[in-house]
């Protein structure tokens, strides 16, 4: 039953991944996705819409004033009257235009300010939502191909940037422009049906050409997105591997790799620019055809005596208001397509429900620490070969269990399963007789101490990094944990002591920070994955003494290539290619002359035990 459930879960996960990859974002779907983030600020939207309505009305004042001015002045000139009679007209239109500009200044300020405020708060909410969501995902999400740190960062940053820019420009640029266009078009139809029809016919033609342009650019835009992600990941890889690159003198190779990406990105960008400029020329020609038709048509009606001379300028200015959003369509389409393309990857991260960690609700009063693994199989995502095969294992409570084997045997993977970082493909893992899947994940991990071969140090003080083991710990408890990990005296040597930056610590000292966190957490279960790998001989002896003390009465699983760590274990499991090859206490399995003896003897030879023994005995 468990196996069928797990298989079904994996199948559903794979379907979700496929759907996420082929489900391209549409404009309507994009707005539905954004709507929950805009809804809390609907008062900002309402205020912006009100300002837009007022602004669209004031935008038509120039056309009215120009027609009125031309017609009145033409009338005065026909009567032989001059400046004295026309002074009142000049004063009136000056007052109207200045008043209109004052009103427009307040309207534009409000639109820009509230539009920018909406962009900022929505950007904040989107960023916080994706962080909160990513923190709930299982480890498999981060090890799946395409989800490397650099690529994820690019998707998140570019996604938020393009989405919030679209929101801002919609309320600051797009909405006012189209409101002006609609009002101007209504006024054109009201003045003359035929002139209004010309303005109306030009708009859909322009939209159609813009849509063709967007279709031809969509593939290139997706390629640009992928190249930018690869470029970001490549730069991150260089920074992480700078020591190795310099030690092997491979700067030229890395330069060539980045140059290849840069050249591909440049070529794709130039292709998009070439297509954009071609279509922009076509659209500009269409717009000018509209202007020519308006001038010819209005001149025709003036000559027939059906329009005044001022009507020519009136309709040209109104058509200018109609065509204003058309002139902006190339920019609007660019932004919308960027938002569509980058939102696909952004919402793929945000909506990866298949990757959310599964958690039960079982929270026992006490954990004894007895693990039982029954026919456990496991394969990493994007990996065709099984890492663990039919694992049967018993880990006794209050005892020390060692995992031994060559690199890649599956030792660290086993600890990842015990900590619920991953779920087995089949089989079951029991803790105190209850399936691990039934445990509340947060509760379980709060009872487990984990020390890895390479532990992360956060950008902060030494005290803050140790306190990570228990946010409620007092300063005295932090210092006590540091003493137990033999780090306290070394911390006091820094000028700012516990307030010094943790990044100043050496590799071995950073390892002691991880062990100090574990002392502070004080869990009933401890997993140690090469806990003394980065330490010198004296520090290794000190940490061994500390670990020996904390091991008492706790369930401990240790991975180590240190003879001292292994030989003291109550039970040893030898792993080979994902299988359990041997198990038992040291003396028992050593004399079987199997895999464990080969590994142990190789450890002893690497330490030159014979010479060490001779030196100590002389």
Summarize the structure in short:
The protein is an alpha/beta fold and 618 residues long. Helices cover 67% and strands 9% of the residues.
Main attributes of the structure:
six-stranded mixed beta sheet, 3 domains, 618 residues, four-stranded antiparallel beta sheet, disordered N terminus, alpha/beta, single chain, 9% strand, ABC transporter transmembrane region fold, Rossmann fold, 67% helix
Instruction: Please state the structural category.
Output: alpha/beta
Oligomer: single chain
User: What is the average of the pLDDT values?
Assistant: 77
Beta-strand content estimate: 5-15%
- Give the CA-CA distance, first to last residue: 64 Å
Main beta sheet, described? 6 strands, mixed
Q: Count the domains.
A: 3
What is the 3D form? elongated
- Helix content, binned percent: 55-70%
For the record, the CATH class of the largest domain is Mainly Alpha
Helix segment tally: 22
How large, in whole angstroms, is the Cα Rg? 36 Å
Strand order of the largest sheet: 6-7-8-3-9-10
- Find the CATH superfamily of the largest domain: ABC transporter type 1, transmembrane domain
Q: Unreliable segments (pLDDT under 50, ≥5 consecutive)? A: 1-23
Number of strands: 10
Which fold name is given in CATH as the topology of the largest domain? ABC transporter transmembrane region fold
CATH architecture of the largest domain: Up-down Bundle
């Amino acid at each position: 039953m468990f196996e069928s459930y797990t298989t079904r879960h994996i199948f559903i996960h794979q379907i979700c991944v496929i759907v996420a990859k082929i489900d391209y974002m549409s404009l309507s779907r994009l707005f539905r996705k954004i709507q929950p983030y805009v809804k809390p600020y609907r008062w900002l939207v309402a205020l912006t819409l009100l300002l837009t309505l007022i602004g669209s009305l004031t935008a038509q004042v120039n056309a009215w004033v120009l027609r009125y001015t031309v017609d009145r002045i033409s009338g005065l000139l026909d009567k032989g009257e001059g400046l004295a009679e026309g002074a009142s007209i000049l004063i009136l239109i000056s007052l109207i235009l200045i008043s209109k500009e004052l009103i427009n200044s307040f309207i534009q300020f409000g639109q820009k300010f509230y539009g920018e405020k909406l962009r900022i708060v929505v950007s904040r909410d989107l960023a916080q939502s994706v962080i909160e969501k990513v923190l709930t995902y299982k480890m498999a999400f981060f090890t799946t191909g395409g989800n490397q740190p650099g690529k994820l960062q690019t998707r998140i940053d570019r996604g938020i940037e393009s989405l919030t820019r679209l929101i801002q420009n919609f309320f600051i640029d797009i909405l006012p422009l189209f409101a002006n266009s609609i009002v101007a078009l209504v006024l054109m139809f009201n003045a003359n049906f035929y002139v209004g029809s010309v303005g109306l016919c030009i708009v859909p033609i322009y939209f159609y050409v813009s849509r063709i342009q967007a279709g031809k650019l969509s593939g290139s835009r997706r390629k640009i997105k992928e190249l930018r992600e690869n470029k970001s990941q490549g730069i991150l890889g260089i920074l992480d591997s700078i020591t190795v690159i310099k030690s092997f003198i491979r700067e030229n190779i890395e330069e060539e790799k980045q140059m290849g990406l840069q050249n591909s990105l440049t070529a794709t960008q130039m292709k998009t620019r070439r297509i954009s400029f071609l279509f922009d020329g076509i659209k500009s020609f269409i717009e000018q055809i509209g202007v020519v038709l308006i001038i010819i048509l209005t001149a025709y009606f003036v000559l027939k005596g059906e329009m005044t001379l001022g009507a020519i300028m009136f309709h040209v200015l109104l058509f200018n208001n109609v065509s204003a959003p058309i002139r902006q369509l190339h920019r609007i389409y660019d932004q919308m397509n960027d938002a569509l393309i980058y939102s696909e990857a952004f919402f793929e991260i945000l909506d990866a429900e298949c990757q959310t960690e599964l958690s039960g609700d079982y929270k026992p009063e006490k954990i004894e620490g007895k693990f039982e693994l029954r026919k456990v199989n496991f394969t990493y995502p994007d990996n065709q070969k099984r890492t663990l095969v039919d694992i049967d294992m018993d880990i006794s409570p209050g005892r020390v269990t060692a995992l031994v084997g060559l690199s890649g045997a599956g030792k660290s993977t086993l600890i990842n399963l015990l900590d619920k970082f991953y779920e087995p493909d089949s089989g079951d893992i029991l803790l105190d007789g209850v399936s691990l899947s039934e445990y509340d994940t947060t509760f379980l991990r709060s009872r487990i101490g984990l020390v890895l071969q390479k532990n992360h140090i956060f950008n902060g003080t030494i005290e803050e990094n140790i306190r990570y083991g228990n946010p409620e710990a007092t300063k005295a408890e932090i210092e006590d944990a540091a003493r137990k990990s033999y780090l306290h005296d070394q911390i006091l040597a820094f000028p700012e002591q516990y307030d010094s930056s943790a990044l100043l610590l050496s590799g071995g000292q950073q390892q002691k920070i991880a062990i100090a966190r574990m002392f502070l957490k004080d869990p009933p279960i401890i997993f140690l994955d090469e806990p003394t790998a980065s330490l010198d001989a004296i520090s290794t002896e000190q940490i061994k003494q500390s670990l020996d003390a904390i091991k008492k009465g706790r369930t401990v699983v240790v991975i180590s290539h240190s003879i001292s760590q292994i030989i003291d274990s109550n039970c040893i499991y030898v792993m080979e290619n994902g299988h359990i090859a041997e198990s038992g206490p040291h003396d028992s399995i050593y004399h079987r002359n199997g895999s464990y003896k080969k590994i142990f003897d190789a450890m002893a030879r690497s330490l030159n035990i014979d010479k060490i023994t001779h030196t100590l005995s002389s």
